[in-house]
């Protein structure tokens, strides 16, 4: 919902803390995800993720969540799906050129990022999105990547 | 200091310092004040329409931007316009918008354009479809301006497609991007410029500048971030036709910011059109004085024929005369254009 989404951005610092606490939990649960099997766990987790993130951020389930780099303002709400900053058409009142009744998600993102501890992440260039991940869970992907990276690290250690 | 090596860019042996055969790149890197302009794309399939529109700038601009469905309106494609113009030897800036094509189409077009002689590419996200004449069209936006820069850098420098597949001869292009220092969030704009430079932008053309203090602030902040040594900045300028036109522009064209003072000055003038051009001339002269400004980009929508005079009166070219096609070549192209007209005429009968 638009008003909730705006409220979240105003409280970006708080949600950054929530995310910081939540992320290690998801990663810690990796053995459980592994045991049940990622394909099997994907459906309920992505449903839960969709429900909660849709409510808070108007999440579009792009599957490659970068909320922590965008001031907790979901860039997929931009009508041009811009993941790297505002376009040149932002109206003088800070609203969107395509949806003039709504505020530009990047004007919000910039304000949100200024409130966050790791707000500097907004300066990183985001690479082209992988459209195959649309609808999938970002949380599970993060957990999987973390465990994959850890096991790879272990593997490399053994090779040495 | 006239013409330097820029008249013969396509045949010259290239120093490794250049990333393309672009004349614009040479003019900028030689430290000259560069002038680029925007070509109005024709709503026709006649090549002569393109040549005629280019000819009005002869001797006053270093490169011409061919827009890619600007304002989300349908016109001749930028790749075709640039290909036609590069046949004669003109230097062009091919604009690519992410609105209408995905990464497969865009990468193919970049290779094709480079093969056809295009040396400069301007990476844009593009206007939304709702502002144009086909609001019912599907907006693509597979990439954005920033990831588009990254993709083309990959083609040029890593010699690979996004997929990682190798390409044998990379496109040698000078890469540009746009910036609009005049719209919110203004304090993020210099950082966004930094991001574009990190993604691969070598030159920047900005939205219309009518508000000098705001532009100066943007440049000062960019200077503090150390961006001005990494990139050539060409602020956008253009003549306003009248106070009414200026009012219409600022309320209807997203991203255009015109201060009240400018509109008042136009209203008070006897000849508003002339005053609009005078404002543009003064703006070019003032911009030139700003540290880090490497040239100007003139967008004179429906006043293209006034550009030469504006540049001349501004005096920014000093004694320099940008490249012009030699008359014989030009005549050849004209003839071809005529033949096409004839052929088109027969076809319709």
UniProtKB/TrEMBL annotation, chain A:
It comes from the Bacteria. InterPro entries: DUF5981. Residues 38-131 form the Methylene-tetrahydrofolate reductase C-terminal-like domain. It holds the Pfam family DUF5981. This is Methylene-tetrahydrofolate reductase C-terminal-like domain-containing protein. It comes from Vreelandella andesensis.
TrEMBL record, chain B:
It catalyses: (6S)-5-methyl-5,6,7,8-tetrahydrofolate + NAD(+) = (6R)-5,10-methylene-5,6,7,8-tetrahydrofolate + NADH + H(+). Keywords: FAD, Flavoprotein, Oxidoreductase. The keyword Ribonucleoprotein does not apply. GO terms for biological process: methionine biosynthetic process; tetrahydrofolate interconversion. Pathway: Amino-acid biosynthesis; L-methionine biosynthesis via de novo pathway; One-carbon metabolism; tetrahydrofolate interconversion. Residues 319-349 are annotated as: Disordered. One of its GO terms (cellular component) is cytosol. GO terms for molecular function: FAD binding; methylenetetrahydrofolate reductase (NADH) activity. It comes from the Bacteria. The keyword Flavoprotein applies. Gene3D superfamilies: 3.20.20.220. Signal peptide: none annotated. Coiled coil: none annotated. Its cofactor is FAD. Belongs to the methylenetetrahydrofolate reductase family. This is Methylenetetrahydrofolate reductase. The lineage of its organism: Bacteria, Pseudomonadati, Pseudomonadota, Gammaproteobacteria, Oceanospirillales.
């Amino acid at each position: 919902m638009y008003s909730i989404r705006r409220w979240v951005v105003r409280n970006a610092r708080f949600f950054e803390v929530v995310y910081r606490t939540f992320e290690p939990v998801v990663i810690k649960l990796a053995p459980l995800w592994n045991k049940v099997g990622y394909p099997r766990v994907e459906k309920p987790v992505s449903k839960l993720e969709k429900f909660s993130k849709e409510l808070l951020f108007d999440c579009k389930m792009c599957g490659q969540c970068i909320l922590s780099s965008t001031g907790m303002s979901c860039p997929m709400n931009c009508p041009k799906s811009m993941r790297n900053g505002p376009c040149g058409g932002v109206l003088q009142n800070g609203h969107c050129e395509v949806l003039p009744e709504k505020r530009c998600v990047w004007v919000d993102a910039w304000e949100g990022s200024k409130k966050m501890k790791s707000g500097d992440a907004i300066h990183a260039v985001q690479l082209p999105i992988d459209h195959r991940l649309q609808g999938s869970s970002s949380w599970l992907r993060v957990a999987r990547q973390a465990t994959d990276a850890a096991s790879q690290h272990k593997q490399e250690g053994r090779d040495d | 200091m006239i013409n330097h090596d820029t008249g013969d860019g396509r045949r010259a042996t290239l120093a490794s310092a250049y990333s393309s055969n672009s004349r614009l790149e040479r003019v900028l890197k030689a430290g000259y004040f560069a002038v680029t302009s925007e070509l109005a794309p024709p709503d026709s399939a006649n090549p002569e329409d393109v040549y005629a529109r280019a000819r009005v700038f002869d001797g006053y601009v270093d490169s011409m931007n061919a827009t890619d469905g600007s304002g989300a309106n349908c016109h001749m494609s930028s790749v075709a316009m640039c290909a036609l113009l590069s046949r004669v030897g003109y230097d062009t800036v091919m604009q690519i918008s992410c609105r209408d094509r995905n990464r497969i189409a865009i990468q193919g077009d970049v290779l094709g354009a480079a093969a056809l002689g295009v040396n400069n590419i301007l990476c844009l996200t593009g206007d939304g479809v709702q502002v144009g004449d086909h609001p019912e069209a599907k907006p693509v936006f597979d990439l954005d301006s920033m990831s588009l820069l990254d993709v083309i850098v990959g083609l040029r420098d890593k010699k690979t497609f996004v997929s990682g597949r190798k390409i044998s001869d990379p496109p040698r292009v000078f890469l540009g991007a746009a910036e609009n220092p005049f719209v919110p969030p203004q304090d993020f704009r210099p950082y966004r410029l930094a991001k574009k430079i990190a993604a691969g932008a070598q030159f920047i053309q900005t939205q219309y500048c009518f508000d000098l203090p705001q532009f100066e602030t943007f440049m000062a902040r960019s200077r503090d971030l150390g961006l001005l040594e990494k990139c050539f900045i060409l602020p956008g300028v253009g003549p306003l036709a009248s106070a009414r036109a200026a009012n219409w522009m600022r309320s209807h064209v997203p991203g255009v910011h015109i201060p009240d003072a400018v509109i008042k000055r136009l209203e008070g003038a006897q000849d508003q059109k002339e005053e609009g051009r005078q404002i543009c001339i003064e703006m070019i002269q003032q911009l030139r004085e700003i540290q880090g400004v490497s040239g100007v980009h003139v967008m004179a929508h429906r006043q293209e024929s006034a550009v030469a005079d504006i540049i001349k009166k501004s005096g920014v070219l000093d004694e320099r005369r940008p490249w012009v096609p030699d008359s014989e070549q030009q005549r050849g192209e004209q003839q071809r254009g005529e033949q096409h007209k004839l052929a088109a005429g027969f076809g319709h009968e």
